[in-house]
Amino acid sequence: MKAVLTRVEGEGGILVVERGGYVENVFYEISEAPRFFEYIVVGRNAERVVDIVSRVCGLCGVSYSLVAAEAFEKCLGIEVDPEIRMLRAALHLAERVKSHVIHVFYMNLPEIAQAKSFAEFLQRNPQISRYAQDVLMWSRKAMEVFGGRFHNVVNIKIGGVYRVPDKSDVEKLEKEIAMVIKAFTEFASFVLSIKPSDVVQNVKIHQVSLYSSSSEYPHLSDRVSLDGDVYSVAEFYKSISRAMQVQYSTALHYRVKGVESFVVGPFARFNQSYSKLSKEVRDFVEMYDWSPPLHSIMHSYVARIAEAYDALLTLEKYLDTFKSSAITNTSSIASTKSGAVCEYAVEAPRGILYHRYIVDIGKVKVCDIITPTAQNLAAMSDIATVAIRGRKADASSIAIAKRIAISFDPCISCSVHALPVKIITA
Q1: Which architecture does CATH list for 2-415?
Q2: N or C: fewer beta carbons within 10 Å in the chain?
């Protein structure tokens, strides 16, 4: 039995294996063709690569550019002005707000609120819809101010940014953010007050997020936490997490030691780093009887609400800083270093995004990009299989499998991957 995935980014489907009319296994098929970004950047200057990879994802382009720039800067010894780092962080947080609000409002909320369609939800809750739209439009405006445009932003470069925002534009954002935060809390209150009863409890599954010894909520790092055990990104993606190809998907699947699946994204970040959210956010979440650990992936929207709120509060502080200081840009520094391994990770809205490059005299020789969705696909299948195995293979089982997929907010287009063909002569 097959079903098409909807309310997700990209093209994919659900494959349900049944025996005697009852579900035995569930697989999520990724049918899109690879787009070969890892090959497109080979031979190109590192500076150009930062712009190219922003095209991998329509919603998370800032994350792709940011982690590429950070990887090159780290291995080539390039210093970035602290205020420019703050500006890039602000752009990344604006992207997080935009992505989370789009997901919760457009893709997750109609089902959480038990509406038959998005149109029905809008009709029933016009004011809540206006609150969500107000926040979404402000986040787009913030991305334009910090990044030049709100979609596929290409303002980040090695060593800095291409342009800094006009002070007048920053002041406009700063004047509006109090109203935006109020609109967001109204929207968030509505979402968190809903207590869905028909949720799927997770199987025992690993959780992975970036690790930092600072008090900052996961953002950028070269270390990851696997259920509290800390590894360098190099060790985790070389030895702990193993990639596998499966017949039914053009995306790679990742498992711990090639066996056990794991979850990345807001669900894992919230459960592992809840104490690093601001007290205001924690108090707000707990007011509606939500606190870690979240036990079901279907409650990921709670984590997205908390993260978006925390991002808005951080942006409020950044805007106050930008308003009272003059940001001076820096230029990237050309490097002739040979054989440098440049790797870093960022918490994109959907989860850990890992980039690894080998650079020779300023040009990329090898590129490896591991996306959040590719890391989550095995967990999606495992959770769905446990949830509906033994149930009748009917529309209600398919609905559960769809809701599990939507809860992960998969970016199917990002996850497609190509591997080189090896021919072995016996």
Answers
A1: Orthogonal Bundle (1.10)
A2: C
